[in-house]
Specification:
It comes from Lentzea tibetensis. The chain is an alpha/beta fold. It has two domains: about 100 residues, no CATH class; about 250 residues, Aldolase class I (TIM Barrel, Alpha-Beta Barrel), CATH 3.20.20.70. About 30% of the residues lie in helices and about 20% in strands. The protein contains 15 helices and 15 strands. It has an eleven-stranded mixed sheet with strand order 5-6-7-8-9-10-11-12-13-14-15. A two-stranded antiparallel ribbon has the order 1-2. The structure holds pyridoxal-5'-phosphate and iron/sulfur cluster. Pyridoxal-5'-phosphate binds next to strand 5, strand 6 and strand 14.
Length: about 425
Amino acid sequence: MARYRAYTAHHLEKLTARTRFSADERLAMRAVAAVLPFRSNEYVVDELIDWLAVPDDPIFRLTFPQPDMLPQADLDRMVDLLRREASGNELRTAANEIRLSLSPHPGGQLDLNTPELRGEHLSGMQHKYRETLLFFPRQGQTCHAYCTYCFRWPQFVGEPSMKMATDDVDALCAYLLEHPEITSVLITGGDPLVMSADVLARYLEPLLDPRFESLESIRIGTKALSYWPYRFLTDPDADDLLRLFERVVASGRHLALMAHFSHPNELSPPVAREALRKVRETGAVVRCQAPLIRGVNDDPAVWSALWRQLTVLGAVPYYMFVERDTGPKDYFAVPLARASEIFCDAYRGVSGLARTVRGPIMSATPGKVMVDGVADVAGERVFVLHFVQARDPELVNRPFFAKFDPAATWLSDLEPAFGPFPF
Ligand SMILES: *Cc1c(COP(=O)(O)O)cnc(C)c1O
Ligand code: SF4
């Protein structure tokens, strides 16, 4: 049985001793880890990262602090504090200031989409799109390892005002009964599969009641298949978890694991494939999504290999995201024009079975916007875009246009073409 062994910032010195990094480079990593949370585990470090390929190894880039994750001035400030062996207090103050400047809740997430029940805000839930309710279970707000680019990072650092989570299952049930338009509940985090099967069952079992006849699907957002496949194989409650999945399926609902896979290397270990097979055996569908990140997966060959391997394993490619405009933006940003090329090239390289995937998609304030491509229309070069999801359902699936801009990385960088934006 594999035992989960976590690594945190305290282990960085020892872990990076495997590399040829200079003392300055190692100090820079510690400086980043003082601001942005670092967490990894033995499986990721020993099975997913090829240490001979570091610093270019994609899973190393995905999970270990990178100097370019902080703006240069912030990095210099933290390095200086560490060099001077500043007090813990001084370090914390500086780290908090930098965190706040990194815009932790983009897209008006905290206020705009919070549902209300009898005049009370239900924090820990989001109801942005008519059909789908997002639920953030309190015990599921951490992960088996952290992705460097994660826009949920405020969930992991000790700032209560930055957190969004709940354990109010009754409120969830009451809200669902009042909102029969909701057909899908998406349990998310962090990673809900850090919870024990018992705790997860406390959230899921009530939803299986026939009272919730309008609830057609339950989704669980997770990276456990990638960062801790033993969750489904040898963890003490692995079987309980799989039996819970079976009960959801037996209730007549579609159960989807919205699995986060960033790179085909995550599928190389046999245990990852075995875990995926076990999940599929329960009748759950595994759908896969990930953002496009510079230095991790900004290569069409990586995406087509990923989508093909996932399809072989019976999983369904779902979304390729453009990373949101938060946190370490300079580190991960890939311009939309390049993202669109990467998506097109990768999509061309797979059979129709894997063309279930959509992207590149920006999850922005008005909705999920897909970049269909670049076109020359009436003598003007434009981005062709459409909403895959929108707060205003009227906007969904209607093409609109923006002036081509090779440097734009987000919706807010774009200027409308041929008339104003529809939102
Ligand atoms: C992406 C997302 C969903 C799910 O959208 P689908 O297109 O159904 O996958 C739901 N709520 C929010 C806030 C989202 O960002
Ligand atoms: S697994 Fe998801 S929630 Fe966890 S750190 Fe990665 S992106 Fe963030």
